[in-house]
Amino acid sequence: MSMKKFNLCVVVMAIILSMLTGCGATSGGDSKNVKGNSKTVTITNVSYDPTRELYAAYNEIFSDYYKNEAGIDVTVVQSHGGSGGQARSVVEGAEADVVTLALAHDITLIEKAGLIEPDWIEEFEGDSSPYTSTIVFLVRSGNPKGINDWDDLIRDGIDVISPDPKSSGAACWNFLAAWYYASQKYGNDEEQIKSFMSKLYGNVKVMDSGARGSTTTFVENGQGDVLVSWENEAISTLSEYPDDYEIVSPSISILAQPSVAIVDENADRNGTQNIAHDYLSYLYSENAQRLIGEYGYRPSDKAILGEYADKFDLDMSLCTINDFGGWNAAYEEFFKDGGVFDEIYSR
Predict the structure, then answer these.
(1) Could you give all domains of the chain from N- to C-terminal order, each with its CATH number?
(2) Which tens digits make up the pLDDT trace of 198-208?
């Protein structure tokens, strides 16, 4: 080979190596969607219905935090719907780097599809629940139907609005809270409990696919006498329409624990594992916990929760999912096809 040809080969190889090095550049280990020197990363958060406003605000403070800490601009794409439907969409291929869903079982569904590591519930504090909520009643101003407890929801002439447990996480919490109340009232007599639940769901006038749809039905469409609601949804409605609605706390409700997780399969493929982790971890920061309180969710930080004691009824008697043997047991008994919910609803 002549020296001229040799030098030409060296130049060509140098150009190729330079191009390959540039293509392999990363930012904080998360190379997917990093554009040139702009260091911009996009992640997708698939969430449930009522969290739209919370995460719109949270994404802003997280993006500011991450820009200052890591020099990376983060854009978060949001998806919202009934929690069960959202989980199934991820299993079927919907893009998600993280999921922030209404209950642990919906994340377990994604885990069983091989997209989330089995120890996800231990990855973040409080069983990966950075905030909690509960179930309350939203009634029209003056409470014209005198609705004060679960017993009132089975009276003749009461129209109830509650979403569908087959697609909505809130609806599952609603069902379990009512079931626990009936179990205490009837001393765990299953036939009497089922009769109570059958009367309650016989009074459900509209069963939307998600909690936000039920709020729209009750508030904007004016249907129903009572909305069985996430506490945060009721607080939001009361804030927007202070003269039109009232919140009623039933004598017994349930500690609702929405859960968060990294969709490991997608995050690994997208190169967003580190940012996805930081995105969920920052939910536990003081800034985020106070934002959570402002939007009507109960902060997991007890001290910060205390700062919002005037917003929440902290004296409510709350059962937990452990009273039903955990979510896997509860789902198998009540919500799978042919389970208790199908039985009582068919009545």
Answers:
(1) 40-132+258-307 (3.40.190.10), 135-255+316-346 (3.40.190.10)
(2) 999 999 999 99
